[in-house]
Amino acid sequence: MGHWLYRNIVEPGKLPLLLALAAFVLTFVVTRIITRLIRAGRGPFGNVKAGGLHIHHVVPGIILTVLGGFGAVASGRHGFGAAVFAIVFGVGAGLVLDEFALILHLDDVYWTEQGRKSVEVVVLTAALVGLVLSGFAPFGVNDLSQEELQDRGGVIATVAVNFVFALAVLSKGKTKTALFSVIVPLVGLIGLVRLARPGSPWARRFYRRRPRARARAVLRAYRHDRRWSGPSRRVQDWIGGKPDPGPGPELNRSR
């Protein structure tokens, strides 16, 4: 384990990425715990205000992200400074993406249905960074054996081909599948052979004169959303908290 960690994480300079990912996930978890306690009126926590203005945690998150990003660029991939700035960046990114929905809608939708976007983005970001972190990194590793060169070259070629597939999958309106297909080959192949989402560029281009294909795409999308929307919502509620009832954000101004 120690040899694998050194060869694939430390030597190629991916230790800052590992620290940033750990800080990112931990920050999101702690932030959600605190906001849920505030929402329930429990614990010593409360909203941060300055002169009656509610300071959302995306504000310090942006500051930490900027400091960590520029610091990481200046310090390089190795050394104590790189590790520190990676942690700072991870903490800032966790705070920012926890309120991604607020930035997207320019409104306080933290505890509304629209606020689910924050949880989706955080989970997707952590998964993608984890996949990149667990993959082989041939650059920066010294004294590679012939077998290691072949393995890592195969991974690079696979990722390159998958990237082309990912573009096609993305044109089918399957954003999440396209992102994961860059790393996981099977995901890209499955997304490539399945029907496109209605209204996607692929559907508009290739289903325009194929009414049966359009009808099948609409029916499949309906069945897929009906089957998976419930479990997906329950997982999101478990991770980030259940949204408040009501259509608008005006009832959700307080954490």
From TrEMBL:
Entry keywords, A to Z: Membrane, Transmembrane, Transmembrane helix
UniProt keyword Amino-acid biosynthesis, yes or no: no
Region annotation Disordered: where it falls in the sequence: 230-255
Protein name, UniProt field: Integral membrane protein
Transmembrane segment boundaries: 15-34, 55-74, 80-106, 118-141, 153-170, 177-196
Keyword Transmembrane helix applies: yes
